[in-house]
Amino acid sequence: MKTLSRLYYRIPFSETDAMAIVHHSNHARYLERGRIEFLRLAGLDYNQLIKRGMQYPVLELRTVFKKPLAFDEIILIETAIAGVTRARLDFSYKIFSVPELAVPSLTTEEFSGNPSVLGETFHCCVNPQGKPIGADADVVQNLNKLWGQA
Amino acid sequence: MKTLSRLYYRIPFSETDAMAIVHHSNHARYLERGRIEFLRLAGLDYNQLIKRGMQYPVLELRTVFKKPLAFDEIILIETAIAGVTRARLDFSYKIFSVPELAVPSLTTEEFSGNPSVLGETFHCCVNPQGKPIGADADVVQNLNKLWGQA
Amino acid sequence: MKTLSRLYYRIPFSETDAMAIVHHSNHARYLERGRIEFLRLAGLDYNQLIKRGMQYPVLELRTVFKKPLAFDEIILIETAIAGVTRARLDFSYKIFSVPELAVPSLTTEEFSGNPSVLGETFHCCVNPQGKPIGADADVVQNLNKLWGQA
Amino acid sequence: MKTLSRLYYRIPFSETDAMAIVHHSNHARYLERGRIEFLRLAGLDYNQLIKRGMQYPVLELRTVFKKPLAFDEIILIETAIAGVTRARLDFSYKIFSVPELAVPSLTTEEFSGNPSVLGETFHCCVNPQGKPIGADADVVQNLNKLWGQA
Questions:
Q1: How do residues C62-100 score in pLDDT, each as one tens digit?
Q2: In whole angstroms, what is the distance from residue C45 CA to residue C43 CA?
Q3: Using CA atoms, how far apart are residues D102 and B124, in angstroms rounded to an integer?
Q4: Distance CA B143, CA D24 (A)
Q5: pLDDT of D63-83, one tens digit each?
Q6: Range in A97-101, A124-128, A145-149, D1-5 with the lowest mean pLDDT
Q7: Chain B residues touching chain D at CB-CB below 8 Å
Q8: Do residues A128 and A55 make contact, with C-beta atoms less than 8 angstroms apart?
Q9: SS3 for C67-114, per residue?
Q10: What is the mean pLDDT of residues D2-30?
């Protein structure tokens, strides 16, 4: 069964634009925050991965903006794995505008409600020189467990 | 025949990240710079469009990262229309890493070389309250001319 | 007695730069997050202030960088009032790198430790047209209470 | 005689905020763009400095906001040295809102007009491990020439 990570985030004034909504470039940063939390849930501290010589740059990003986000709103960023091999790692995301923080922090059930934003990111694993490599077996195993394929 | 706008941009230090490459969230901002220039070429000053009650928020964003961009590089952002109706406006983009500024600033031919980044954005036209509207006829006509459909 | 607001924040990858530390432009955004929380503590929701016709743009910003901040660190942003009149509002800030979240969320005592960053911002009150105005009496009274002058 | 570098920059939509002006955190990035150009004028490519083992992190930043900047405006960033030793390097800046690009690109005379923003940054020279060092003699000499002290 697929596992979701949940991260709450309050929208700062600095991420709004002259339309008085969150500028669409910031959502990639929200997805990244969600992804880092997901890795932490999987027992994978991203700083430790970097020290071990593995990084996951973004190959492709897709974001669908369904409802605008506004200053001071609390958003919930749900992150799940969309695919993982030794060479690749893909994530899918839903961002919800939530009224409060009273939602459980980890679950296998999605938040009920209409997402404001949908996202997908596609990554490969690279070494410190930026060359594609296969991730260590324990990393892939940990990710597989949360993907629900292990 | 489709028209391209060309915008040069020097990568600032502030847009790099700890991998010493441009953080992938900044590319959406490069596409936006390209888009604003494209509209200017079409005789459409974005500030004027806003004053006339038309804005083009992003409905969807796709970016493909083929080669990383680095600090102090000069990039060329090529923008073209991918589709236009009264309700919708879609753009496609190519970002090239270029050695110098000696490329003509407007042409119907693409820069020869492998793009570092590919992008697509999908927009609708909204009024100041954020409600979808049809753009004024002269706006669509100007865009159609550069799309090569007029 | 002066009151401090405390806000915790985890440093995202997107706010690092090619020196592998937080880019110095982001600290102004951390101060702003601290300031918005301080206002909330004072019973002043910034969105409500905007609706009531009062905004506090930054007239001057000073930041002293004592120790660099790194990716995934948790920082504590302490905010206090440095001065308030009907026309003006000034804040001072300390940012600490903290090992955990176990610090009380509101107190009149400063966090013990050496701050990584010191900040000051100076603001005036303006109306929606950007003209300097005097803030409403209840706003100044609420701020005065946390400043310790009431 | 002191030398100024001049850099023109068009304000993108992404750097505005919900007050429909440039968010005050972005000005530090404009100063940085000005500083990198100044170094280039001094014959010092910042990438080359990094390769030679010298970097100039910001110790302190001060910005005074006199007039707000708006979307699509062209600004002129004037940068000058405020002080230089082997250990330290300080800059002062003026940002002007300008109607066109017809101003000479380098001069010892300031742009006539009222600056929208004043800035100062204070730097030390560090090695790749972040330890303070003395800059190489040729670097200091080049900077001194533009400071007008050589």
A1: 999 999 999 999 999 999 999 999 999 999 999 999 986
A2: 6
A3: 36
A4: 34
A5: 999 999 999 999 999 999 999
A6: A97-101
A7: 10, 12-14, 28-29, 32-33, 36, 45-47, 71-72
A8: yes
A9: CCCCCCCEEEEEEEEEEECCCEEEEEEEEEEECCCCCCCEECCCCCCC
A10: 96
- The residue written with tokens 């070494």 in the block is A127
Contact A17, D19 (CB under 8 A): no
Closest-CA residue to B63 (of B124, B113, B121, B144):
B121
Percent of chain D scored above 90 by pLDDT? Answer: 86
Contacts of C58 in chain D (CB under 8 A): 24, 65
Question: Are the C-beta atoms of residues D54 and D135 closer than 8 Å to each other?
Answer: yes
pTM of the model: 0.95
What is the helix (H) or strand (E) element at residue A47, kind and residue range? helix A46-51
- Chain D residues lying within 8 Å of A13, measured CB to CB: 17-18, 23
Length of chain B: 150
From CA D127, how far away is CA B133, in angstroms rounded? Answer: 56
Residue with tokens 């939509």: D13
Residues 6+ apart with CB under 8 A from B10: B72, B73, B74, B75, D33
User: The tokens of C126 are what?
Assistant: 């303006």
